Each structure stands twice: as structure tokens, then as C-alpha cells.
Amino acid sequence: MKCKIAMKTTGLVLLACTLLLAFAAPHAAAQQRILRLAAIQPLDHDLTQACLHMAQLVGERSNGRLKIEVYPAGQLFNDKDMPKALPSGAVDLAQVTTGIWVGLVPALGIIELPFLFKDMDHVTRTFDDPVFRQILDDEMAKKGIKLLFRQTWGYSFGYASKEPLHKIEEFKGKRIRAHGEMPAEIIKSLGAAPVFMGTGDVYLGLQRGTIDGVNTAPCLAWDKKYYEVIRHFQHLPAADLMSPPIVLMSMKTWNDLAADLQKIIVAAAQDTEAWSLKLSNERSMQCAKSLQEKKVQVYNVPDEERQRWAKACSHIIKQYVDRNGEVGKKLVAEVERNRE
What we know:
The chain is α/β, with parallel strands linked by helices. It has two domains: about 30-155 and about 245-280, 3-Layer(aba) Sandwich (D-Maltodextrin-Binding Protein, domain 2); about 155-240 and about 285-335, 3-Layer(aba) Sandwich (D-Maltodextrin-Binding Protein, domain 2), CATH 3.40.190.170. The chain has eleven helices and eleven strands. Helix 6 (about 180-190) packs across helix 11. The radius of gyration is 25 Å and the shape is globular.
């Protein structure tokens, strides 16, 4: 009799545990929030790897309450469609190119202003400055987006070309592919004619002579195999000519998250930024070496010549301030305040 009672009791306990687990499993799953991140580069690209790195940090630090799914290579939206998709909440996060967003948030053009920043340390100091960041964040929030972290194409940015572009005079009469409004204005200021074409058309454009050069970075030139159709790469420090990739978040998604999850995302983004910048810099140095191995002449534009280029482009900073009014003045002032 005692044995039967014990068996019955055990059965009831097992039934209770089964019911409890059946209830708890969907309940726990319901607690997990899944966010989608649209990336524009392939899965194995260092910029996409940074997005995966942040996703891992967020998942670990939120104890699974928040999961970020990364969709690489434009699977969800391409770069040009993102300014509509992200603010609307059609996607939660996006890894994008700055130049595409300046039309929506003109103040964001501060990142692309030529020869404004002393070096990349100056860029970091400025973007870490609370006053600068608050001004920029407020302007972006008005358009429904939030800047999570900066990325980089590497330690340098410049011009890949069929003929040397070592001096400003050599830009005259050349046709250079530009990927946005600011790069186009810089190309015009240097004396060349900007040409707008899709990324996929650049290789053939160089091969057929439709364009003489392209505004790019060492790893972009390597990944797109431009070394097969160019002979020169003129590089400047990355801070001189920037059109950096950035990771943004929809304000709709941000405002719908609990405060503790917002803090986790911000901290993970800060850690990922340092991780990403280091990875991209290391890779770009290797890409520059690889270009040289393919008989591309990598030319470091000397300081004296850089100053000539900077002088020719100086009016662009004034145009930015005029376009953005008081906001532009304050942002440029903060850049200058953080110079040293």
C-alpha cells in the first residue's frame, strides 16, 4: 500500500513538473526580444563581423532577453533604401554608409567634411565629447534614427586611378567616381569632374575608360579587384577624407526598449566600436600591401601637398555651416575645441 501511495505521489510530482515546464517554456520565449540588423557587406567582411560581435555582446549581457539577428549583403534592404526603412521601423538596426544619410540628416555631414579633423584620435575625442554628441544625437532623433557606433574603411582613404594623382594639378580634366554629395564636392574642388555610378559599374568604368579614378579605400580597391584596372592608389590619412560606415538604430525600436536594455546596447556598441576600428585598420594595412604586390603604386600624399588639397576644399566647411546654421556652427566649434 505504501509503495502504491509513493508511486502515485511521484506521478503527481512529475505531472506537475511537466505542466510547469510546458507553461514556462513559451513564457520564457515570450520574454526574448528579437531585433533585425540589416548589413550591406558580405558575411565575412570585417564590418559585418563587427555587427555580429555586437550581437553576441548584447545577447550575453542581456542574458538572452535581447537577440540581434544580422542579415548581411543587403538581404533585407540595400544601402539606398535604408533611409526610408530604418526610421519607419521596417528594420531595427542598420550598418550603412554615412554619405547616403546626409540628405536626411544634413548635420551628419560633419563626419565627411574634408581635412577638418587632425587625425583619427581627434575624431574619437570629438565623438566621445558629450556636448558634440548631444547636438548630433538630437538632430538624428528628429529623423527617427540613433547613432550606435562608428566604423571605418581602414587607416586611409584616397583615390585609385589609372594615372598618377600626386599633385592637385593632375586632377584637372579627370573623371572620378563619387559615391555621394560630399565626395563629389571634394572632387570638384580638386579640379576633377565627379561621376555618379553604382558600385557594381566602377570596375567596367575603369576598364573602359569611362572614369579615370574612384574615391575609395585600400580594402575596397582590393575586394572589388580594382588592382586589375588601376595602377595607382593615392592615400591620405583616414581623417582627411572620411565617408565612414556607421551602425544606426531606429528610434521606434529604441523607445520601445526597457531602460536596462538600452544601457546594454549602448555599452555593447561602445565596446564594438573600438573592436571594429582596430580590426579594420589592421586589415586595411594588409590590403595596401596586397595592392603593392599586384604592382599598384601606393603613394602617400606628403603633408605639403595635403595642405594644398585642404586649402582647395576649405570652402566646403563654410558651405556646411551655412546649410546647417546654428547647429553647424556648434558642431564645427566642438570639433575645434577637441583638436588637442
